[in-house]
Amino acid sequence: MFIVKSNYITNVSSAEMVVKVFREIQSEDFRILNIIESAMSNREYVPTEQIQKFAKLPLERVQFTLDKLHKLGLIYRTKGAYVGYTLNYAGYDCLAINNLVKANVIESFGQILGVGKEADVYDALSPTGQRIAVKFHRLGRISFRQTRRKRGYAREHTTWLFQSHIAAEREFQAMQLVYKNGVSVPEPISHNRHVIAMGMIEGAELSKYIEIGKPEKVLKEILRNIRKAYLKAHVIHSDISEYNIILKPDGHILIIDWPQYVMADHANAEELLERDLKNILSFFNRRFSLKVVAEKACDYVTGKVRNLVI
Q1: Order of strands, sheet of 83-87, starting from the edge strand that comes earlier in the sequence
Q2: In which domain, by residue range, is 12 found?
Q3: If you average pLDDT over residues 199-228, what whole number do you get?
């Protein structure tokens, strides 16, 4: 059974809205949503007649369902040369949540943990009572040009929903690779479409800390994890900064946001690794007056030297 908790924040996002209407959606509604999703691979707005053809239901029933889904805010409708429908993020959320519920990954949702330019993260519970984090990728909040520049894997002629699907898929793959090699990331549990379920994220972004007890210890742990990712998993984060390193209450770190990862044999691997290191070292220098030479950090991360003295 899917449970809706009552401790929601006032500013409702599409995922929260979906959670609230989830119990109103029947199997036939999901069937229509799935048909629209499939047909969107060929056109942005799917004509009513095409939806009926694949649903193999009377037109009146199909239209009733479409009206319901539109009223619930799960699809968009256009009226031009023809009447057509397309999924929005709420409808896509709905399909992903339904699959994760059926797979016994999610039992209930709680508070939102964070909202970013390209993702929302929520607190949730698994059927066994385990607290987990659920991340909804939301590409399209920034301009397409910015997304293309920032994300080399983005495809120019696909919807934001599919772009977000790719981002989630890539991030889940990266997390699996580094997690099994001992890198400090949330445990990758499952993913569906643009949504990832992972181990709980507790703490705050490193950028939010004005002071920390032992900055050199935290920096060493960050560099040690970057080294593990590089030497053991052959993975480079390629977008690391103080905004995607979580400092937990116990003083240890988690590295999050991996969709832009590249493998160590990538043509630009050296440049991307150096950029990651310079981002982190620059932050520690600015915020905590801790100076580390980038070349020395790079030699340590790439295994040229065994230890790094800070």
Answers
A1: 46-47, 83-87, 75-79
A2: 7-91
A3: 96
